[in-house]
Amino acid sequence: MTSLSYAKRRGELETYFDRTAAAAWARLTSDAPVSGVRATVRAGRDATRATLLSYLPRDLTGRRILDAGCGTGAFAFEAARRGAEVVAIDLASTLVGLAQTRVPADLGAGSVTFLTGDMLSPDLGEFDHVVAMDSIIHYEGADMTRVLDGWAARTRRSILFTVAPQTPLLMVVFAVGKLFPRKDRSPAIVPIRPDDLWARLSRAPLWAHFVNGRTHRVSTGFYKSQIMEIVRR
């Protein structure tokens, strides 16, 4: 069951990505020229996506993957090229619609099913891998834990996700962001220490079936992301 805080935050994110930032996000995730901060964000996201893909087998034939918070589909397409059956879901119907227009002709043996809705829905079924790139960074610690708990119960192999690392620089950026008028702000991220998150997760019995795996930090300009891997024993 999702909490009221999760549902409220999810609604705010849906409004932002579906309406306020849809055009900017479409440009950022394309090959159109961008400048300044957005160029560093694009570079960081490209590096993060490449690392997440490197944590998966080269051959994903027959494996079912949840791309949670799929955006415009870049990760889903690459996983499908390796043979995966990808369920790509996002709360923003505008971004999902754009992703569907970008499906490449060379998906190979894999497939991508795009959906609009809640990435935590149990109706999505079970998966070999769950991948959540920059999808849970906007949720408070308790809701972040609740989301990961929900995925762990339905994941056969690994969960790959990113968090915003709690570094001094990121905390300064976070504080400065609060000075802008609310209408000009993107949804706030919630920095967290990876070790603290794993300690929080490991208190629940279901996490005894998982181990804390590889981790890697991506830092390009204003983009800071900590990749985490949790693997079923």
Describe the structure in your own words.
With 233 residues, this protein is of the alpha/beta class. The chain has one domain: Rossmann fold (3-Layer(aba) Sandwich). It has 8 helices and 7 strands; from the N terminus they run H-H-H-E-H-E-H-E-E-H-E-H-H-E-E. The protein has helices spanning 4-20, 22-28, 37-54, 74-81, 93-101, 141-152, 168-177, 194-201, and strands at 64-68, 85-90, 111-116, 127-132, 155-163, 210-220, 223-232. The longest helix has 18 residues, at 37-54. The two termini are 26 Å apart.
List keywords for this structure.
233 residues; alpha/beta; Rossmann fold; globular; 7 strands; 7-stranded mixed beta sheet
What's the number of domains?
1
CATH architectural type: 3-Layer(aba) Sandwich
Shape: globular
Q: Largest sheet at a glance?
A: 7 strands, mixed
Extract low-pLDDT stretches: none
The averaged pLDDT comes out at 92
Structural class: alpha/beta
What percent of residues adopt helix (DSSP H or I)?
Answer: 25-40%
Q: Number of helical segments?
A: 8
Strand residue content: 15-25%
How many β strands by DSSP? 7
In the sheet with the most strands, the strands line up as 3-2-1-4-5-7-6
What's the gyration radius in Å?
Answer: 17 Å
The CATH topology name reads Rossmann fold
Span from first to last CA?
26 Å
| CATH classification, class level | Alpha Beta
Full CATH superfamily name = Vaccinia Virus protein VP39
Element-by-element helix/strand order: HHHEHEHEEHEHHEE
